[in-house]
Amino acid sequence: MGPRSAPEFGQCFPGRATVAFTPNHYTDKLYNAFVQDEIPIVGDQLSLTIGSKFLHNGYSGFEIEPTARLL
Fold it and tell me: What is the rounded CA–CA span in Å between residue 39 and residue 53?
Protein backbone atom coordinates (compact mmCIF):
# COMPACT_ATOMS: atom_id res chain seq x y z
CA MET A 1 0.00 0.00 0.00
CA GLY A 2 1.27 3.42 -0.92
CA PRO A 3 1.21 6.48 1.34
CA ARG A 4 -2.08 7.71 -0.21
CA SER A 5 -4.05 4.48 0.04
CA ALA A 6 -7.10 4.39 2.27
CA PRO A 7 -7.97 0.77 3.03
CA GLU A 8 -11.49 -0.01 4.12
CA PHE A 9 -12.50 -2.90 6.32
CA GLY A 10 -15.83 -4.48 7.14
CA GLN A 11 -17.20 -7.06 9.47
CA CYS A 12 -20.00 -9.53 8.90
CA PHE A 13 -22.25 -10.91 11.60
CA PRO A 14 -24.32 -14.02 10.85
CA GLY A 15 -27.95 -13.15 10.22
CA ARG A 16 -27.36 -9.40 9.93
CA ALA A 17 -26.84 -7.16 6.95
CA THR A 18 -26.11 -3.47 6.75
CA VAL A 19 -26.91 -1.51 3.62
CA ALA A 20 -26.25 2.19 3.15
CA PHE A 21 -27.49 4.32 0.26
CA THR A 22 -25.98 7.66 -0.61
CA PRO A 23 -27.95 9.89 -0.97
CA ASN A 24 -30.46 8.54 1.53
CA HIS A 25 -33.36 9.33 -0.82
CA TYR A 26 -33.68 9.17 -4.60
CA THR A 27 -36.59 9.66 -6.96
CA ASP A 28 -36.61 7.53 -10.11
CA LYS A 29 -38.27 8.78 -13.25
CA LEU A 30 -39.58 5.80 -15.18
CA TYR A 31 -41.41 6.11 -18.48
CA ASN A 32 -42.94 3.39 -20.63
CA ALA A 33 -45.31 3.01 -23.56
CA PHE A 34 -46.35 0.24 -25.90
CA VAL A 35 -47.91 -0.29 -29.32
CA GLN A 36 -49.53 -3.47 -30.58
CA ASP A 37 -51.49 -4.61 -33.61
CA GLU A 38 -53.28 -7.87 -34.38
CA ILE A 39 -53.38 -8.87 -38.03
CA PRO A 40 -55.84 -11.64 -39.04
CA ILE A 41 -54.29 -14.10 -41.48
CA VAL A 42 -56.87 -16.91 -41.74
CA GLY A 43 -60.20 -15.58 -40.46
CA ASP A 44 -60.58 -16.30 -36.74
CA GLN A 45 -58.19 -19.27 -36.85
CA LEU A 46 -54.78 -17.65 -37.32
CA SER A 47 -53.51 -14.16 -36.57
CA LEU A 48 -50.21 -12.34 -36.21
CA THR A 49 -49.75 -10.00 -33.25
CA ILE A 50 -46.82 -7.60 -33.39
CA GLY A 51 -45.84 -4.88 -30.98
CA SER A 52 -43.15 -3.21 -28.97
CA LYS A 53 -42.66 -1.82 -25.48
CA PHE A 54 -40.57 1.32 -25.03
CA LEU A 55 -38.91 2.08 -21.68
CA HIS A 56 -36.71 4.84 -20.31
CA ASN A 57 -35.08 4.97 -16.88
CA GLY A 58 -32.06 6.47 -15.20
CA TYR A 59 -30.18 3.16 -14.92
CA SER A 60 -30.11 1.75 -18.44
CA GLY A 61 -31.46 4.65 -20.51
CA PHE A 62 -33.76 3.91 -23.45
CA GLU A 63 -34.84 0.32 -24.11
CA ILE A 64 -36.98 -1.34 -26.77
CA GLU A 65 -38.65 -4.74 -26.28
CA PRO A 66 -40.17 -5.92 -29.58
CA THR A 67 -42.50 -8.91 -29.78
CA ALA A 68 -44.27 -10.99 -32.43
CA ARG A 69 -46.74 -13.84 -31.92
CA LEU A 70 -48.43 -16.14 -34.35
CA LEU A 71 -51.63 -17.48 -32.78
Answer: 18
For 39-60, the pLDDT digits (tens) are 899 988 999 999 999 999 888 8
Mean pLDDT of 3-21: 54
Is 36 in contact with 29 (CB distance < 8 Å)?
A: no
List CB contacts of 33: < 8 A, sequence separation 6 or more: 53, 54
Is 59 exposed, middle or buried, given 0-12, 13-18 or 19+ CB atoms closer than 10 A?
exposed
Interatomic CA distance for residues 30 and 55, integer angstroms: 8
Please provide residue 29's backbone torsions phi and psi, each rounded to the nearest 5 degrees. Answer: -115, 110
